[in-house]
Amino acid sequence: MEEIIDELRKYNFWDREQPNLGFHRAIYLDKIYKFCGNSLIKVISGQRRCGKSYLLRQIASKLIKNGIAAKNIFYLNKEYIEFDDIKNHRDLDLLIKKYEQRLKPKGKIYLFIDEIQNIDQWERLVNSYAQNFAKEYEVFISGSNSKMLSGELATLLSGRYVNFEILPFGYEEYVGIKKVEKSRSTYLDYLQSGGLPELYALPEAEMKQRYIASVKDTVLLRDVIQRHVIKEPKLLEDLFIYVLNTFSNLMSINNITKYFKGKGRKVSYDTIANYLSYIEDCFLIHKVDRYNIKGKDTIAGNVKYYCNDLSFKNYLFSGFAHGVGYMLENLIYLELRRSGYKVYVGTLYDKEVDFVAQKADRTIYVQCTYMLENDNTIEREYASLDAIPDHYEKILVSLDDFSFPSRNGIRHLQAWNFSDYLATER
After folding, report:
1. Is the dihedral angle over the CA atoms 212, 218, 219, 221 positive or is it negative?
2. Which of 83, 110, 126, 164 is the most exposed place for a label (fewest CB within 10 A)?
3. Residue 130's domain spans which residues?
4. Do 352 and 241 belong to one domain?
5. Does the reported pTM lie above 0.90?
6. Using alpha carbons only, what angle is made at residue 317 by residues 313 and 318, rounded to the nearest 5 degrees?
7. How many CB atoms lie within 10 A of CB 263?
8. DSSP states of 306-357 as a string?
């Protein structure tokens, strides 16, 4: 354990300059920091390589800037090979105790455990430290599997934690990193690239392609195949590819099963359903249910899937035609989620509204289209929103060069201004 403490020094703030903090993610950092100073466990969840580790370090840095002693912050990233010997909750407990003996921190200790799912029975340690009345601890954890985190925590901690799902960089962050102006051109550049942070350090398309392929392989292997002992890994990957090439379209498990059977594959409904849920659990895709706008409830059956990041489509399977309008719809979905909305696909009689987004007492109806290029397109896109009888906000988003005037209370927004609109709460 003494040697591991020495290794920990390389990654902590104890006696060195701050480690690399990455791009300042204000949209998440400010939200999470508001919950600091209490016994709630802060859970940072999201796909691998979406920036969770940087965000944990940014939180730790902000604590130090606001007066917390650096030696009172313990940071461990279980992805690093130096910590392979920390296999279970008892190993981690012993390491934390050894850290306290060596550094002798006074007062509350802040524990940051990154990729905690790699520690067996981690939930027992988290529960123990969060409820320790003899000594004060505040616990921050990150993980790359939604079901494992929500399942274990919900069962054991019952209301003593708060979860923050982290998405790859949005367009607002893209503009900040690239130092460019908001415009149709830069939005299209973002749409045709992706939001995984490491992409911005790679100068060539081939390097980006290799990187995205490695992320895909790592997530499917470590978070799905190994965790669930998948018997048909080729089917799992082919299913992921299928979703990448049909996102933004209504689909059902029955239809997907029929598709693979039509290709001569021996598959079952249950296998497809399970594999889809596993891919969703590791945050590669998001399932969106349909919502009956008139009845105000969800509808079973067909659903839509959206990619967690368009880089998988853009760099791995760009040869498959997929309209810009569908990709725009995917980005608008992610932007709504990034802003904290629960999102559904809306239905009203025979019409579909791309999104019904709800947060607290705010409801927004959003329709997306590539371009309002002629009268028929304009009438079609406005018709779905026009048919909604209530008076919640109605937004039409497109990539047109100019903004259309409001029509029957329906506001038109250019896609690159959508995040600004969401930031304005009524």
Report:
1. positive
2. 164
3. 2-165
4. yes
5. yes
6. 80
7. 10
8. EES-THHHHHHSTTS---HHHHHHHHHHHHHHHTT-EEEEEEETTEEEEEEE
